[in-house]
Structure formats: C-alpha cells, structure tokens
Amino acid sequence: MKKKYMDCISGAVLILFALWGWYETSTWKVSAASGSLSPRVYPRAVFTCILICGAIILGRTLFKMFLSKKDSAAELDRMIDMHLVNVAAVTVLTLVYIFALRAFGFLFTTPVFLFLAMLLFGERKWLRMVIISIVGTAVLYLFFVQIMSVRF
What we know:
By secondary structure, the protein is mostly helical. The chain folds into two domains: 1-69; 71-152, no CATH class. The chain has helices at residues 3-26, 41-67, 73-104, 106-120, 126-147. It comes from Intestinimonas butyriciproducens. This is DUF1468 domain-containing protein. The chain crosses the membrane at residues 42-63, 84-100, 129-149. Residues 9-151 form the DUF1468 domain.
C-alpha cells in the first residue's frame, strides 16, 4: 500500500480512537471534589493531543495528495524503506530508554534519549540538540513533578 494511503488511514484511525476515548471518559462516574482535578482530565488531554496529531497527519497527507506532483515509484519505495528503518531505530531506542530509566534515572537518560532521537531524525545542529535535550528534560521533569505530582 502506498505511503499516502497509509498516512490517510493512520490519521483517520487516530481521530476515531481519540473520539472514542473522549466518549469513554464521558461515561465515567466522577464525584465533584472541590479544588481538585477529576480523573478525566489527564486522559482527555492525551486524547486531545492524539486528535490533533491525527488531524495534522490527515490534513498534511490530503494536502500533499491534491497539490503536489507525483513521485516516481522508485523514489516512493526508497522513502518507505528509509521510513521503516527510522521507525525500527526509534523503537529500539525507546526500548533501551525504558530499561535505562531504572538503572540510571530520569534526569540522566532523558537528555541522552532526546539527543539520540534528534540524531536519528536527521538533526545535525549539535548546539541546538544539546539545548533542546536539556531544556526538554527540565520541562518534562517540572511538568510531572510540579503539575502532575509524580514522584520519581
């Protein structure tokens, strides 16, 4: 199946999944405690992000299908093969990151993971990669510790 059709299907599936998630969270019985977040807030935030990402994927794919010139079959196959290699590499990197979290902790493994992920995605501006890795780790840490009250 061609990449553009796979992207359309992926975007549509993500949108449907997010809508299903929103529906499911609306059926939860939640007591109204004053001054606290309900258990629906975090799942709905995740489903909203999934919905936005699915809409972006679907929109970009449809835009490219209707406005761009056609690529040759060989070029398309080369891009799909390269994409599959990147997906496999990021999957392996993520698995290594998950196991390294226990051994080395969040504050050490996350910047390394972010740096290597950017390297896999083709970023080559080293200073930018270091800054994004460090600032991204700090933002994630503050989000989970301060806002979500997760203790590491």
